[in-house]
Amino acid sequence: MNQREHFATKIGFILAAAGSAIGLGAIWKFPYTAGQNGGGAFLLIFLLFTIILALPLLLGEFSIGRTAQQDAVRSFKKIAPNSGWYWIGILGMVTCFILLSFYSVIGGWIITYLVKVADGSLLHLGAAEYAEAFGKTISNPYISVGSQFVFLFITIIVVAKGIQKGIEKTSSIMMPALAILFIILIIRAVTLDNAIAGMKFLFVPDFSKITSKTILNAMGQSFFTLSLGVSVMITYSSYLPKNVNLPKSASSIVGMNILVVIFAGLAIFPAVFSFGMQPDAGPVLLFNVLPTIFSQLPFGMIFFAAFLLVFLFAALTSAFSMLEIIVAVISKGDSHKRRKWSWIIGMAIFIVGIPSALSYGVLADITIFGKSIFDLADFTVSNVLMPFGALLIALFVSWKMKKTALYEEIKQGSNMRKGVFHTWFFLIRYVAPILIVAVMLDVLGVWK
User: Does the residue 1 lie in any domain?
Assistant: First the structure.
């Protein structure tokens, strides 16, 4: 009988799980979403919902995974045998498959821009020229598909090596490196002229900017930033021994995620305001606005390369978890089959992701429901599958799992007090489902 793998250390698990959570949502999406929703007020509401929504859901996923000590599908089968709850795990697999198919496209863009920084092709361009360069990059089929392949190749290599030698070891290097690079970027950003304006934008709430849309956007951001609802955290926590403090681990991961979100804001907004640019540039903030800013600084391209490395490390550690959940189910925890299935599934994801990679080039004229192939995949995952999966997980934890057994599981290694447990249970049984449904109705346009 093949022995199932486990994380070697508690810190290794925390760094791997934090790496899964800290991805495009925290470093790419948060800055431009905050920029479009009033800065400080958005951050304040985001923090509130992270605590009352994301943290309870994260602990809920941890509870399922460590209770069952199985992959995302078999965890539900073990806890609720002879029922259809295991479809939550299958939904998570499908979601991660689609998510990684277009997520890898953005990862490829980052790799492409790192090459462009290295060969000097991004030096001394104007703002309009950076926008044009980005457009040419993502519309070139050879660059888009080739860089997507490189990103997935790296992801497959790491996951194929296993939990300890692959995911844990790599995350334990990338996450500290991410933090160090971020600190260097922040020091440079906050020492720019008029950097204080960017810091005020991020930290001083302007409550006049708060609208119902701002609240719903912050709620959605708190949820998506931690990649909840796709059973990734169920898979990761299934590799944990029983003596790990689950509430402390969940709090540490949420805390690290919040810290990285703030780091991203501190690295970007002071620079944006220092050069008189607008913080609401949208998704192109990283590839259009930031190169324009960094190109005007001494050694600016070095700092831009550092930011791209931060972005790449965050994207990769998230990609590891997306591939891992699928490999864990298909290989049935057999480490001897891991390598083969990592390559098979990874290559399948690459093939399925090719249309997304070509969405801004040769397939730009193809739209479905008014969206490009890339945008449709993004919308389906972010606005439908992820929140629906989180809703089902919240309902499973609070209504299907036995409350006493749940308390005993969480208490192991933590000595959680009953009062704290009952508060958490109330949040995941009543508050989280209501908030998730509100987000789903918003993104589907019901509130309009």
Answer: no
